[in-house]
Amino acid sequence: MVPRGEARWAWLLSDGGEPRNWILFLAPLVGWHDGGWAGIGWGVFAAVFTAVLPTLILGFGERRRYWGDRHVRRRQDRIVAAPGVMASVITGTALLYGLRAPVEVTALVTAMLAVLLALLVITFFWKVSVHSAVASGALTILATDFGPWLLVLTPLVVLIGWSRIRLRCHTVGQVTVGVLIGAAVSAPVYTLLG
């Protein structure tokens, strides 16, 4: 059993480091980097389709008991939840390209979509940590835009992974694969398109 104080820290790290929060922070920041104040607006627009609407979809499914909670812990439930989330991200990506949003913002959502697709393929066979994938992908993109010095935040990604393991949501292997996929998929896609 996880000690009480340790469990509290694990929950705080897990909830604070959930994918939605990374995206809500990252999308406007990438938009600002590419287009100043107008870019922030595009980043917020991107976050609506990649963070806000997916959160609402997951909340709706939780209330209807299509899956157990907003983190969709059961692998089989993730396959059920994926189409709604993917539809939102694909719609947002198409709109950003169609409306000629700043290049870095469209590259960001395309990289997110690529990571989601990779995770979905794995989910048909095995459970992988989305928290870890999004955290490592976000950090990779931040380091690409603002410099490798931001890799000093790597311990934050490690702590988020630790929280998922401590809460028994994932194994060490599932967290490790999530970290590797997040970085390995998002970095080349973002660099190529950005």
Automatic annotation (TrEMBL):
Isomerase keyword on record: no
InterPro entries named in the record: PAP2/HPO_sf
Entry annotated with the keyword S-adenosyl-L-methionine: no
Alphabetic keyword roster: Membrane, Transmembrane, Transmembrane helix
Signal peptide (residue range): none
Bilayer-spanning residue ranges: 36-58, 79-99, 105-126, 138-162, 174-193
The protein's name in its UniProt record: Phosphatidic acid phosphatase type 2/haloperoxidase domain-containing protein
